## 1
Amino acid sequence: MFKIFKYSFYDLMRSRWNYVYLLFYLALGLVLLFVSTSLSKAILTLMNIIILLVPLIGTVFGIMYYYSSKEFTELLLALPLKRSSIFLGQYFGVAISLSLSLVIGLGIPFVIYGIFQSADIWHFGQLLILGTFLSFIFSGISYNIALHNENRIKGFGFAILAWLFMAVIYDGIFMIALVMLHEYPLEKFSLIFSIFNPIDLSRIMMLLKLDISAMLGYTGALFKMFFGNYLGSTIAMLILALWTITPVFILKWRSAKKDF
Amino acid sequence: MKNLLIKVGLFIIALCLSTAISAKTIEVCKNCEINTVKKAVELAERGDVIIVKKGLYQEIEIFVDKPLIIIGEPGAILDGQMLSEIIVIRSDSVTLDGLEFHNVGTSNLRDYAAVRVRGSRYFTIKNLIIRQPFFGIYLEKSSYGKVYNNQIYGNAVSEFYAGNGIHLWYAHYIEIFNNTIYQVRDGIYLEFSNNCTIGNNVSKNNVRYGLHFMFSNNDIVRNDRYENNGAGIAIMFSKDMEASDNYFMDNWGSAVYGMLLKEVYDAKIINNVFLRNTAGIFVEGCSRILYEYNDFESNGWAIYSRGANYENNFTNNNFISNSFDIAYTGPLNKNVFNGNYWSDYNGYDLDKDDIGDIPYKPVKLFSNLVNRSPEAIILLRSIFVDLVEFAEKVSPTITPNILQDETPRMRMITHDRN
């Protein structure tokens, strides 16, 4: 598995798109720090971009890489190799190279700016951890979708739909539910509802750490109480880990059973 | 007869002069014969001047019951040793100048103050420095006084174990100028106090409010600066107030406001700057208030209007880069929002009169939804909400039709500030 991972990883590292992705984050970080007055504000804007772009690019990269390396995968399948190591190797290759682009691309400008001397280092660190989680989660989901669909167009469509659901539609349903049920106490409901979407969870965990959390009022206080204590933050991390591990296991299980 | 009159007149003038001259000066210092302020006050007669030399005087409960001028030289410190109050003024026409007060007693039963003025008039309290007050300057049932150039530095942590910087209770016609107040409960507090003028003060880092009015009418606040308080100014159950040319900055946190108005009638809020507050103005149950020439910039909410507000007029204000310009509950109730500048407005102006041709609706869909179910605020900064906001920009028809500015300005209004 490690060999396949290494191969995929080096392959991706040499790919042009990965560099574009890296350069994009580099430019984004530099421009943001140049434009915004405070580090905290830059992190807030960055969070907005990360929760939108990281899942989207994870999804698109995952599905593209699967389809483009399909012939090579079939070649590997003909060799005496464990199936799980082929697919997991490829998946980790994608996920890790994406995460590296994110961490390095954003890390360099912020390190130059002097994040280590700032109290915001923890917020920035958390942002990068959440971004890494999102990269893993969404490339995992898209890899599964690709494995399931031989038809590229269909696979692509489903993957984008999955992203759209998590990023937008889920919140839309959430909002409608909140408005429809506004006569009931909804704090716990909204807590539970938002904890199960990795994008929402990342966003809220980040918001609560920043100044803007003051605007969340009573609901925010409740969320803060939940995420502030040991149990709450453990649950949040567990859910993110669950979102990361589940696609991997499904991938392993399905790839073993699939008839190529 | 005429001669006699002149003689009598001269005699009276001479008498006056002689009393004026006879006002003696008493010096207090650690090694003098008179080494406590209390003793000096007891020995002094009406109109005398007491000069307190540099030194630490551990004294409490100095009662001033005659018109005196008490002047502290730099470094003259009265230390209350955390026991009780320090000076209590119970006579008209007393002047306190330049003294420094430390360690006022704290109590859960009594409101100890560094300086208390009780039932007096025409007093002047100036150039004091008060450190670790419980209450700083406490005026009760006193009128026509001046409180200026004082500095009060508290170390309040919670509302329940702290007092106010300058506290007025049934005190009318008081002038409060150029004071600096840090970290007490309420910087300046007025209860049942009318016709007071407050100006050029700085009130910062207070646990509760920078300035707090309760049941006080006809008061004026000008050129003050309120930073990082629980609310900059809170006005409650008061009428005919005026707040103009004040700065409200960085009053940020949950349930923290630049200005908090509750049950206020006939007030004027003019030419103020609200910068980076969670809510610039939080207003509930207020009527006939004029909000004009104010700048609201980078606040969470510029105006947070809860119910029961009638006939308020918001005009010629600038709303710049606030997360929400207005949150509004309930029917319109004759509140008017015309002629303001909104940085989010993207209408057009064909006839070039600097007034937008299409009305602006400052209450956005998300803001409205949050008002209906407050838990929805947790979707703040989500992609869904960003999309909704974008959709509103493209097609304003989905914005709720609660209130609108019929004549939005195309350009930012330049206010006359000095």
## 2
Amino acid sequence: MRRWLPASALLLAFVGAWAWLASLPSVDDLTLASPAEVWGAFGDDRDLLLDNARVTLVEVLLGLVVSIVAGVTFAVAMHLSRTLRDATYPLLVASQAVPIVVLAPIFVLAFDYGIGPKLAIVALICFFPITVNVLDGLRSVEQDHLKLMRSFGASRLRTLRSVEVPAALPSFFSGLRVAATVSVIGAVFGEWAGADEGLGRLVLLGNNQLQTPRVYAGVVLLTLMAVALFTLVTLLERLTCPWNRSERTA
Amino acid sequence: MQTKVVAAAVEPPSETETSVAVRGVKRGFRGARREPLLALAGVDLHVGANEVLGVVGPSGCGKSTLLELVAGLQEPDGGSVEVAGRSTAKARRELCAFMPQRDLLLPWRDALGNAALALECQGVPREEARSRAAPLLERFGLRGFEGARPAQLSGGMRQRVAFMRTLLPGRPVLLLDEPFASLDSITRASMQAWLADALAGEPRTVLLVTHDVEEALFLSDRVAVLSARPGRVMQELEVPLPRPRDRRAAVTDPELARLRERALEVLGS
């Protein structure tokens, strides 16, 4: 409980500063809505916000699933084949240099208006931290452990399953934590490029229609989504890698 | 710690001749500046079936390299290594149980799971491997710690789990690399006594590498003294006392004292 205190205090101070700033006469109401107005928007537009949040959440979660499956598969393949690793590593890095904002409209052209382009963009952003972290984790296993497995007569698959994959789990979760936070941004980019629904589209429309409180309400929801995903991944890690925690505290 | 390791859970070592023969073995490496380093310069050793050979030498004399060569984890650059008359690395790996200096327990597996690891590597299903390891845990004084993770075990307990893992596949040749080096002196003494009893109960061919002359003399039938790098056998000492030995008697035994003097003399020369 005490661990939450500093964060809560800081958040409160932040909201306070926000309210004070919004109350200044020189600040335009269209630029900055006050916390009270945003709270009001949550009340007035409750159904609208929740419906669109649901759409975005589905895009984010499905995109994460796609990137986990692709990222883990790719990392394991790169780990097992030196040639594949050497060949694809530069491409992997290059994939992150591509400006997603520019790519998004092309994806919409290619995949049409539905959920496809959003998944593609979320997956493209999240794929990288997952792949790189899992690969690092798989390669972090000590030479002595591999030697020991060899002396036991273990097969390549057995060593992968019993030693390398468990050793890579904490790294996988580190990558997933990063992926979870950026996935929300990916979904927003996807919706901006062309969508009928979703929080990103709602924010964009609200901006055009000068509904500033609604825009801020959407941004707050998107932020909450990212924080919730981050927390969920941290909880999952604690459940699946309890040894990691006990070792650190020991 | 009066422990017997004769257990139905452990496959009995095969009845074939399980001696180890190391003939004129040379092994070199590249050093930090790519310069060639000779770790072993023509080592000759023989360990008879169910004999315990201690190998002592200064740090960096190639003792661990020697063990990995016998274990089939490395190939010699010159000379030959035979275990039970077979010289391929694969055959050596199948006949030898190798216990490295560090316990190398997997932090995500509990004590029982770590002990069962080598069995699982040989294709024994997980649950069966665990149930075969379970009775041994009790014999090793680890009852009640089945579900404990390595981080929750003391150094001596971890070493015993590593030892169980080594013994369970029932391989006839044990290769022990400084098995007690990481332990405090009290734990080390009790683990040595325990190993002596264990080997009396269930004889195996053992190659015990250590830098501790007393440990080698206490546990071995013969002790080979290696030179500093490049390693070479400088002297072999016969220990004429029956095993297992009583520690207090061993400390005061004049014959052992003479051998200890001799070994230290050779090491210091």
